[in-house]
Specification:
Blueprint lengths: L1 H47 L14 H56 L6 H32 L12 H11 L2
Helix pairs in contact: 1-2, 2-3
Amino acid sequence: PGAGRILIQYILWMALILLITAFIIVTLLYNSIIRKVRRMQEATENIRAGNLDFRVDVKGGDELSELAGSIERMKDHLRADAMQKLETEDAQRKFLSNITHDLKTPLTSVIGYSEGIIDGIAPTPEKQMKYVQTIHNKAIEMNDLLNELSIHNKIDTDSIPYNFTNINVKGFFGEFAEETK
């Protein structure tokens, strides 16, 4: 009876120690995993909100750390794409501003010369013909600018088909060399 009782107490104490140890290990692992998951959750919320200026800092060599690394690479890629988009939009705004300015110049001439004809500033047929020719030239200039704008738009929307053909480079440069002699 005494030895059996000691054995039962010994087994109970061992079971209690094993349960406490298991509880501590599970708690530590759980907290470690939850901490990483929460950091990644914060990262995805930042990305969703458009904030790409943060760091997903999860250390370790486990699958969750690899996932955090993937989120970090995705965030960096999104930031690079956003910067590229801003640069492209800025270039498009500048291009549109330049086209607008370039269109206003000949349009001002067309308006001025047509008002000159209407107001009788060009009384002779020769002078009127000169004004009409200037209006015509400026209208062609505006048309050329609008064609350039249309081509630029087609390039931006990838609606220009590309037709690649093989050329005889030796023959091409041979002709070029002959022309430049």
